Write the structure tokens for this entry.
Amino acid sequence: MLDKFLATDQSRSLLFQRLVLGAVLLPHGLQKTIGAFGGYGFHGTLDYFTGTLGVPAPLAVLVVLAESLGAIALIIGLGTRLAAFGAVATMLGAVFLTHLPNGFFMNWSGAQGGEGFEYHLLALALAVPLVVRGGGALSADRAIGKLLHRTPNAILAA
């Protein structure tokens, strides 16, 4: 089971997807955890999710973790499938709880009532292949998987 969770190939495309998704999610996670980039911080985010959106507190915490620790995990390729699944769940939740009524487009001009869901579709396009295929080249998952396949004598010798 752990073998399948860690399994991946040397795909540089997956590496690129993993790095871009992690780099895009991390600032959003920092908004939600420490209030960076004009965010609400952890307590403000939980209050917004649980109060305004009606999201249960444990689920709200999982969203914050997916966009913060999950983004870091994606960047280093550790638990890539789980971190990417967290991104998928977060993006789907955001679309259906908040962004769908605002239409497709982002709100660059401020003319619509809120942000559309185009960003979320792009994040999903990056995350889904990572759930299916793993983290690709230079991932911690790949390195751990290789280590687990070594014989006990080879591990002791290293």
Q: What stands out?
A: Residues 2-157 form one domain.
